[in-house]
TrEMBL record:
Residues 11-375 form the AMP-dependent synthetase/ligase domain. Residues 430-506 form the AMP-binding enzyme C-terminal domain. Transmembrane segments: none annotated. This is Amino acid adenylation domain-containing protein. It holds the Pfam family AMP-binding_C. PANTHER family: FATTY ACID SYNTHASE, NONRIBOSOMAL PEPTIDE SYNTHETASE. Gene3D superfamilies: 3.30.300.30, N-terminal domain of ligase-like (3.40.50.12780).
Amino acid sequence: MTERLQDLVTQSVERDPEATALVGGDETMTYGELEAASNRLAHALVDRGVKPGDRVGVLAAKTPATIAALLGVLRAGGAYVPVDSASPAARAARIVRAAEPTVLLADDTATGLVDGLAGEGLDLTVGALGEPLSGERFASAFARADLASLPAEAPATSSPDLAHLLFTSGSTGVPKGVMITHENVLAFVDWAIRHFGTKASDRVSGHPPLHFDLSTFDIYATLAAGAQLHLVPASLGLDARRTAAFIRDHELTQWFSVPSVLTYLARFDAVAENDFPALERLLWCGEVLPTPVLAHWMRRLPHARFTNLYGPTEATIASSYYDVPAVPADESVPVPIGVPCDGESLLVLDDGVPAPVGGIGELYIGGVGLSPGYWRDQEKTDAAFVAGPDGERIYKTGDLARADDDGVVHFLGRTDSQIKSRGYRIELGEVESAVNTVPGVRECAVVGVDTGGFEGTTICCAYSVVEGTELPVAELRKQVTALIPRYMLPARWEALDGLPKNVNGKIDRPALRERFRPAPKEGT
Ligand code: AMP
């Protein structure tokens, strides 16, 4: 069995160094080039003091050079920390400060943000993935051209099991760093390649951003199979026609994304009958795909196979799958999240004991995908990773579920205030913390409202202000924009004299949700 993620690439190089590994924008990289580029970068990192187990931050667009950089970090024995470049500097600084990277790798798309990090008081050694970078408060210590003279063979370092840290939204306002090991990812990749039959002739989409754990499936399963990874530019955003053109023009054989992308393509009718003739399988993960949207896709693409993947970052990429057998007959029935992937287990527990078949309970996950825990946060780790009924280590997902007679698991919602909006995992508590830090805010509550349409959950904020303070919505919104990424920003705001309270004196969130719920359209 392969021991480290970078070995997957080396094996593909041995099979065919001339084969194309990565396609992104105008750049393509063969397996041989990828191996050499990552090895050279590894030497540069070792020369800058990166030792086995050190973290290396990555603030860069999703390009072939960035993927080579991730592998370079692993070859240097380090663990990479992809930072969301859509984050304002204040939030990115919290992540970088927590990760304590020895080096921060950046490209020219991140110059402003790196400068912002320096402005937050971080003393960083910056390596430029392209041309040298400089801002008002930093200059890169090395750049791509400096690597040319370094050896194309990997440095002799050990490679500890920690592969990367992925920071997700935290309910108290502080992002949580999920530790992911080589073993975690290798186990999923091994299952996925067998289950989906990934082969060297495959042309696979790379849609999720690199700080999403879903991207690790695309990267490592594709490179392990010796196939081509086609990086979907973030600039396509939710442009349905251009996204469809990308799938068509790149003759993709596999598409994997969060459901909102599929929903937009359906909404704008961007997929023709029997479109994408090369497409063999379409996979999604991260949130519920509305059944009518799935049925639309299945009718349009009768030649493709459709699979729902389910799982939290803490259990690595996905823990269960459901291969949809046929176009759903009843579009009001949600798609199941299915059965465990090899080496994983799903447990529906009610008060700590297994719920009876069909009974609702909280979903726990055990097995090979389980992260060792949250980076330097034993308390949160102990609260989320607990002992199961047989003493085994299991992760408390916060999802509600039930298993049917066939052992197929159905997702029923959340037990807490974590939501998904366009695939982004958001703790509403993190949004509230940001709003609460704005001077003049007396009280605020952020709720997710299911608007029932294609948009899914809408983030809504109600607030009141300290007496004598003027804080119009536009001003508050502007200040909050500097604290959290755009995708966390409430879409609807309301200033109230006071927030509604329930009998216990707590903020009445159901009442607020009702307040924000759109009035039903006439005739519905
Ligand atoms: P993340 O860590 O971003 O992958 O988010 C994990 C959470 O997303 C899970 O705990 C679920 O609440 C939700 N989720 C992931 N996959 C699915 C799916 N296929 N169907 C419904 N919800 C999902």
